[in-house]
Amino acid sequence: MIDMQQTKIKVNFSRVLGTPLVPLCARAKISKEYSSLFNDAKAIELIEQIDYDFLTLEKSSGDYLLFATAARAMQFDNKVKAYIKEHPHASVVNLGAGFDTGFYRVDNGAIHWYDLDLPEIIEVRKHLLPEMNRTACIANSFLDPGWCQAIKNENGIFMIAGGLFRFFDEAQVRQFFSLIADRLPGSEIVFEAESKSSNDVDGRCGAYGAGWSDEEPEKRDAMQEDCIRALKNGWTILPQSLKSQMIGALTTSTRPQSAEWDDFETWWDQLSAQEKGEAMSDFFFGFTCKCPLEDASEMVAWDDRITVVDQFPLFRDIPRDPSLSMSVRQFMDYTDEKGRIKIVHVRV
Ligand SMILES: C[S@@+](CC[C@H](N)C(=O)[O-])C[C@H]1O[C@@H](n2cnc3c(N)ncnc32)[C@H](O)[C@@H]1O
Fold this sequence. Notes:
By secondary structure, this protein is of the alpha/beta class. It is built from 14 helices and seven strands. Helix 1 (21-33) crosses helix 2 (41-49) and helix 4 crosses helix 14. The longest helix is centred in the N-terminal third of the chain and has 24 residues, at 63-86. S-adenosylmethionine binds next to helix 1 and strand 2.
């Protein structure tokens, strides 16, 4: 997975569910552009070390997605900081850690921090972010009970799961919470939950359009219309410019696991019109959460050992900085008003 011959690290993510490069890119970009809101110097350092076209990723992801992803990190950081203030020697477990540099943002000099991810990601992670005194990597699935025994369980356990549960069915997510209730009772867990409405087409097209500049509202609106028509009518009606944007976006979300990263366009060209239509719809729904949750209280029916500590809209208390584009600010309001994405905090 790692090409050691190169100065920069080349990573092949073909087998990984949900690329960790988007959130890394988001944290670096938002740190660079809005350092008063969020500061992740380590993320900026990391993207310099990885051989990847982050600029294209940035463009295809769109401003809203990048800001929303960084907002999740801001909210998680606040939650971790509050917990470790009360439990300074706690264990913090970052589930589906990817290349998150949360430890560097919140460390109090006493916590124990665990980054858990699939073996192929951990291999790269260890290279980029070597384990230290109080940090450890765990190469395992969060659904495997085996990793629980590696966690120091004397001073409280706090877990974060960013951009992880959305790839799993509700049954699997429930299984995870029951696993924690069995093996590490008393743990607190923070994650983002998406409502069913966050999966609808309008939202996706809107979010997609939000990536376009406010200086060109007609163009942005036309793009959204194109997106909706495309979803209804199929690939052939799309202008080439939008096809390219979609290909860019698809590489980050819905590429088939079997295709090699660099072979994306070859894979795309081989698809039939119908498959392209399906892939496009995957593009819109590729961000679809497989286990939407309208309200955290629903979790109590999953397992009565779950207690809801807190839940609130993703952008709560995050300043609508005037330097953010108008469409990003509008989307923050829209997302919060509709309860599309929530930060959920539970104890098991
Ligand atoms: C969208 S990324 C989010 C990464 C990180 N939480 C962040 O915010 O930067 C999703 C991560 O979940 C990891 N993942 C997917 N399936 C997993 C599993 N079964 N167990 C643990 N991690 C998993 C992926 O490898 C990837 O790093």
